[in-house]
Amino acid sequence: MRVLALLAIRAYQRYLSPYKGFCCAYGAHTGRSTCSALGYRAIQRYGVRGGLLVLRRRLYLCGVAYRRHVTPVPRPPRAQRGDCDLGCDMPCDFSSDLPGCKSGSSARNLISCCDCGSCDWPDRKKKDREKERGIHIPSYRGRSSQRGG
């Protein structure tokens, strides 16, 4: 299992990473190794399960570094974003008196006629970003500061 995971990371580093058009945000921000390089070393050292736990933490920090340093893209007006606007206050009682619902309908029809999803996803994003403010991402250490001069 370890050999397969290491081969998959090497294949990613050689064939996909150079052509994807962006780099590891954590590595670019801190000047340290990329997430794939850390994942390779962690799996090599701790095995697949332990290495994936180490890599999971690094990928989270990489996402935090990306969200802190990316230029925000302007969002379209609310009506064009696809936010929940009409279906949020509808009760979800799975009764057969809703339009389009039949008593023997398939699960697909049941889901399409009754929206049980939560409409608080924009608020959750904001709460997650507020939690990320307290996370420390080390600053870039250039070669001159490493040499002591």
For this entry, give a set of tags.
149 residues, mainly alpha, globular, disordered C terminus
- Return the structural class: mainly alpha
Number of helical elements: 7
Compute the average pLDDT.
Answer: 74
How much of the residues is beta strand, in percent? Answer: under 5%
Order of helices and strands: HHHHHHH
Low-confidence stretches are 100-105, 112-116, 143-149
Q: Span between N and C termini?
A: 45 Å
Would you kindly provide a written description of the structure presented here, covering whatever features stand out?
The chain is mostly helical. It is built from 7 helices and no strands. Among the domains are: 2-71, no CATH class; 84-113, no CATH class. Helix 1 (2-16) crosses helix 3 (35-69).
Task: Offer a quick outline of the entry.
By secondary structure, the chain is mostly helical.
SSE blueprint and pairings:
Blueprint: H1 2-16, H2 25-30, H3 35-69, H4 78-81, H5 107-113, H6 121-132, H7 143-146
Helix pairs in contact: 1-3
